[in-house]
C-alpha cells in the first residue's frame, strides 16, 4: 500500500463477514462501508459539490473513458487535476474506462495489446490499452485509480469469460508497471462472470499482487441480484482482509447489505441521480414515483427523519408539482435526497457493525427477496454507462 | 399603505431621480434598488432557495396564472401559502396573471367583466376576472400582489391602447374592492403602451388611489429599449415618491440603470435563469456564451471579483465542459452566477446612491447604446411567459 494510504478495520461483525473500517487517502478518510456517488463527467448530475458534502459524500467517482473523450485529461491535468477541476476537496476514484469501452463503443479491434474503438462523439479512432488508461488516470489525479479490465457481458459463454479473465490479469500486471504516481492507489478488479470457480481463481491470483485495494467487477450487468450475492460471497473472503474491497456498480439497499455481510466496504451506483432525473425517490427502502397522484396533495416531507435539504424543506406535494411541471429543480432536490439516503443507509450499517448489531438490525435486508415482493432495486444495470 | 408595510427613502441622488430605499414587508426588508429573481412556478428554475439566499435575493416572484393552472391555489393555501410551499422565507411578489392571460392563452372572450380562455394544459375553459385574480393571490399569500391588468401587445393602435388602459383602471378599482388581506400589499399597474400622454394620464389617475406601491407594466414586450427609457422617464415622476416603484419584466444592466435614474426601485426579469439554461452568462455587462471555443481551456473563473458560488469554485473551462456535455449542473451554476450578478449590479447602484456617486460611477450605463455597440440585453421579451 502506498505510504499515503492505509486501511484500518475498526470492528468486525461476529455473525457475518461485515466490517467497519477507515480508508485513508491523500484527500481524507472514507468511513466504510460507504456508498460513493457517481460523477461520470466530473460532476454528479444536477448536484453541486456543496450539496454533495451536505449529503454526506466522502469519495466520489469520475470516469476515465468519458473524461478522455471530453474535455480530455490534458485540460484536467492543467487545471491541477480532477479535485481542482470539479471542486471536490474529498477523495475521488476514477473507473478505468474498461467497462465503458466494452459496453458503449463500437469496437473495431480487440487484442492482447488493447482495444481500438470509434469515439461515439466524433467517430475518430481511439486506442485504449492498460498503459493508456493508467496514463490518463495519472493525469486525472484521482486518489484511487482502477485497473483497465475486460468486462464480459452477461450472458457470455464460459470460454469467453475465461479469455476475458485471463486478459484482465495480464492487463493488470501492465497497469501496475505503467502506474507512475505514489499519491494514487491502483485497485485490481476481479472478473470471472457468473462462474464461481473462475471468480475464486481470479481473486486468489490478484490477492498475491499485494495491491492497495481490490474490486469485484463485472457484476450488475444484467444478471439476477441473487447471482451477485453468490459471486460476492464466494469471492470476497479470498481478498486480503487488510485492504479495502469495492463492489463496482452496486448501490441498492438489499444488494449493499448482503455484500457488506460478505465483507465489502465500498459501493457506487448511478441509481440515485438517474432515479432523481426521472422523478423517483428512494425512501426507507422503497422506490416512489413522485409524479404519482397520491403525492399531489401530500404536504408531509418524503421522510421526516431524513436530514437532507429536500426532506427538511419541501413536501411531497411540492416535489410532485415540480416533477409534473418538468422543473429541473425537482431533479436536483430528489437527487440530493437519494444520494443522502444511500449514504445514510451505509452509515447506519457502519454504526450497527461498530455496535455489533448489524446481523440483528439489518436482518430483513439480509434475507433473499421473497417471490412477488417488490423491491426498490433496478433490474437494469446500475453501472454508469 | 397597510400597517405591515412601509417604504423609507434613505438617499436621493442629487443629479438624477435615483433613490435608495427600504421596502419593509411582513417577510423582511427589500433594499432598493433591487433586482428580483423570477420563480414563475413557485421555483426559480434550477436554483434552490438556499442558493438564492446566497446569491443575495430578497424578494422573489411567482406567477398567479401559472400556479392557478398548476398545482392550484387551494393546495398552496393548504400548505400555508407560497412561502411555506416553496420554502422561501423572504418576501414574495405574485404577478396577477394579466400578462400571461393575454400573451399565452387562446382567449375565447374578453369583456369588461374579465377574460375567458382555454387552459393550455388541458383545454378546459377558465375565467379570470380582477376578483378572481385577487382571490387566487389572496390564497397564494405573497407579500405583494399585483392588480389584474390588460396588457396591450406591441405594436398596438392607439385606440386599442386607450381601451386597455381604461379597462386596467376600472379593473384596478375592482381589485382594491376584492382584496381581503392586510398582510398583502396590492400594487397598481400603469399601462398606456408607448404613448407618453396615455402613460402620464394613467400614472396620475393611479397616484390618487393611494396604493402601497406602483408598477409600470406593458414594457419589455418587444419595443426598442429606448422606448422603455422614455416611458419610464415620463411616468415615474408622477408616481407618489413615498411608495415603491416597480418596472415589470426589465432586468438588463442598461435598462435597470436608466430606470433607476428615473426613480424606479424594483425590477424582475427571467433573463438570468433563461440565459443560464442556454449556457450563457452575464459577466461585467457582457453576455458570454460558455459553449464558445475560447473558454475551452480557460482555467480562470468567470469573474474573479464575483462572490458567487460558481465564480468562487469553478473555471470557465469547467463550465464550458458542462455545457458541452449538456450537464444540468452547468445550467444551475450559470444561473446562480447570473442571478448574483444582476442583484449585485443593483446593490452596487444602491451603494453609489447612498454615497451620492451614482451619476458619476454609472455614467457609462446612463448613456444610450451607441450604434453598432453590442449589448448583453436581450431583444426578446424579458417578461416571464
Fold blueprint:
The structure is a homodimer of 385-residue chains.
Chain A: E1 6-12, E2 19-25, E3 28-32, E4 34-37, H1 49-54, E5 60-63, H2 64-69, H3 73-78, H4 82-85, E6 92-95, H5 98-104, E7 106-110, E8 115-118, E9 125-128, H6 130-140, E10 144-146, H7 158-178, E11 185-190, H8 196-207, E12 213-216, H9 225-235, E13 245-247, H10 253-261, E14 266-269, H11 271-276, E15 280-283, E16 286-289, H12 309-313, H13 316-324, H14 328-354, H15 358-361, H16 363-366
Parallel strand pairs in A: 4-14, 5-6, 6-10, 10-11, 11-12, 12-13, 13-14
Antiparallel strand pairs in A: 1-2, 2-3, 7-8, 8-9, 15-16
Rough shape of chain A?
A: globular
Q: Might you state the CATH topology name of the largest domain in chain A?
A: TIM Barrel
Helix-strand category of chain A: alpha/beta
Percentage beta strand of chain A: 15-25%
Point out poorly predicted stretches of chain A: none
- Largest interface, counted by CB within 8 Å of the partner chain's CB: A-B, 40 and 40 residues
Q: How many structural domains are formed by the residues of chain A?
A: 2
Number of helices in the DSSP assignment of chain A: 16
Protein name (chains A, B): Queuine tRNA-ribosyltransferase
Subunit structure (chains A, B): Homodimer. Within each dimer, one monomer is responsible for RNA recognition and catalysis, while the other monomer binds to the replacement base PreQ1.
GO molecular function, one term (chains A, B): metal ion binding
Active site (chains A, B): 95, 268
